[in-house]
Amino acid sequence: MEGWIKMDIPTYSGRGPKVPSIVKNIIGEIYVKDRQQTAKEIMAEVHKWLKEHGGPQRPGWPGLSYIQKVLTKFRDPKSKLSPDPEDRPWSRISLAQYPIPPAALPVVLQVWAHSLRKDKPLTIRQALWVARLNCIFKDNIDMLWVASVTSSYHEKVLNLNAYPDTKEAISWHWVEDAYLYGQIADANIATDITNMIQDELEKQFQAGETRKEAQNER
User: Fold this and answer.
1) Which of 5, 2, 49, 4 is nearest to 28 (CA)?
2) Mind listing the pLDDT tens digit for each residue in 86-135?
3) Is the pLDDT of residue 164 over 70?
4) Nearest-CA neighbor of 164 among 5, 47, 20, 27?
5) Please, which residues have CB within 8 angstroms of residue 25's CB and are 6 or more apart in sequence?
6) What whole-number distance in Å separates Cα of residue 151 and Cα of residue 2?
7) Where are the domains positioned within the chain?
8) Which of 123, 40, 26 is CA-nearest to residue 83?
9) Cα distance between residue 207 and residue 110, in whole Å
């Protein structure tokens, strides 16, 4: 995701603002990529992601207790994050159960070969996303592979939660949608949309922090 909320927030003291929904998704995606990581390792990766993407800059935020709380839900044996058939390696024989439009098959094979060269075999879930997104990344197999892998992580995490039902919750995904729009249309318009979304989210985040501070003063 390009950019995020850019703001200077003081050091986390244990009573920070409400954690945006995107942070929970980031935790889930990092966990899905490597389920052997400890809560502390995942926390470090979350902080790194926020720093690299211009997220809320509050050292130590979100804290370990929040990370552990989210992971408890993700690690539940009954969780929908548990491995399912679509996480198996893709092959043409999977088409019998997981069909892909014939027109997309040549591109899926290109991404499949690309993934093997990286020693990261394409999964069935990722192949389905390649078929969905190939019309956007027609001339960039590596970007298509990255987009399909990222989208598959998003899908896995989204399966655990209800589909976003508020503008704030879905806005995080709109930022990435704007990036996709920029690949097929006017990049300047895509940038304007992204900035507009980020400005609104920044206001919401700051308002949440103000409410939290007011509650703590009571």
Assistant:
1) 49
2) 999 999 999 999 999 999 999 999 999 999 999 999 999 999 999 999 99
3) yes
4) 20
5) 154, 157, 158, 172
6) 15
7) 21-81+160-217, 85-158
8) 123
9) 47
**SS3 of 8, please?**
strand
Contacts of 202 (CB under 8 A, 6+ apart): 5, 6, 7
* Closest listed residue to residue 195, CA positions, set 207, 184, 182: 182
Residue 39 tokens, joined: 């809560």
What's this model's pTM, rounded to 2 decimal places? 0.70
Report d(CA 111, CA 127) in Å as an integer. 8
User: Sign (positive/negative) of CA torsion 28, 31, 35, 41?
Assistant: negative
3-class DSSP state of 2: coil
Tokens representing residue 186 in the block: 């006017």
Across 148-192, the runs of DSSP E, i.e. the strands, are: none
- In this prediction, residues 152-166 reach a mean pLDDT of 79
